[in-house]
Specification:
It contains seven helices and twelve strands. The protein is α+β, with helices and mostly antiparallel strands. The protein folds into three domains: 101 residues, OB fold (Dihydrolipoamide Acetyltransferase, E2P) (Beta Barrel); 43 residues; 80 residues, Nucleic acid-binding proteins (OB fold (Dihydrolipoamide Acetyltransferase, E2P)). The termini are far apart.
Length: 277
């Protein structure tokens, strides 16, 4: 009986270890759902050796189904906000650095089992020695004020000391970086209503080219950003031969002079024999 109990205990421990290892593996390889919002999440933006920009959150990200562990990198998509952000990636003397501490806001996209991040706003966090010294001076002044008002603080009927401590911020916005970012002039993002066109490939890069439908207008080509809508359209495109026309709605953004399109809705259109394929 004792041997059976020992074996049962050992089996339970092995199952617990396996379950824990499986949970860790799922967290390491988790893919967040499309449209998940990062609401000014604290983390680090950095540049990789492949000249890509990534964001690593200081906290785990949970979308209601999947959990992405802290410090997991997410590639940042090209956008006007990324261009503003890269202007902040420089030192005090103008030299380029490779990382920046921020609170980032953006939307997560998913394409072929991988997450990407479309940044919409951010706040730089100061980590310089000057900021630390200023913080120390500020704390000293606050402590002197608290000593003078100690009697009143103890009898405060509204807020306790614990609540006051929770209200103190654990980060400092870098206003110097914000002024530098405001000097960067980029085109604003805008929404594209349902426009008709074709998927094309140039030098291995995928674009969406507008169809003029016989009118004398510019047939602009937008570089496509990875997302679920584009992935589903690609899969459906390969099921039917021939050139196909699509109507796309999405967000147009600009990065280093190149127009990009983040699709939100892609629908197949039919000419019914009225237009050439």
């Amino acid at each position: 009986m004792v041997r059976i109990m020992k074996n049962s205990t050992l089996l339970i421990l092995l199952l617990a270890v396996c379950f824990s290892a499986s949970a860790v593996e799922r967290a390491n390889t988790a893919v967040l759902r499309e449209g998940f919002l990062l609401d000014y999440v604290k983390g680090v933006i950095s540049k990789t050796d492949q000249e890509q920009w990534i964001f690593t959150a200081d906290v785990r990200l949970f979308d209601g189904l999947q959990t992405l562990r802290a410090k997991s990198p997410i590639e940042i998509l090209p956008s006007s906000m990324l261009e503003k952000l890269t202007a902040d990636i420089s030192g005090e003397n103008g030299e380029e650095v490779t990382s920046l501490d921020v609170r980032l806001q953006g939307n997560v996209t998913k394409y072929q089992g991988k997450n990407y991040l479309y940044a919409t706003s951010y706040i730089p966090i100061s980590q310089s020695k000057k900021a630390a010294e200023a913080t120390d001076v500020k704390k000293a002044n606050e402590e002197s004020i608290e000593l003078k008002q100690a009697a009143e603080a103890k009898n405060d009927p509204i807020l306790s000391d614990e609540i006051k401590d929770l209200l103190k911020p654990d980060w400092n916005p870098d206003l110097g970086q914000k002024k530098k970012r405001d000097k960067v002039i980029v085109e604003d993002d805008y929404s594209m209503p349902s426009r008709t066109g074709f998927f094309i490939v140039k030098d291995g890069i995928k674009y969406f080219q507008l169809d003029s439908l016989g009118r004398k207008i510019n047939r602009n080509a937008y570089r496509l950003l990875p997302c679920t809508a584009f992935e589903m359209a690609e899969k459906a495109k390969h099921t039917i031969p021939g050139r196909k026309r699509y109507a796309i709605s999405g967000t147009v953004t600009t990065y280093k002079g190149q127009k990009y399109l983040l699709p939100q809705r892609i629908a197949r259109t039919y000419n019914h024999g009225n237009f050439a394929r």
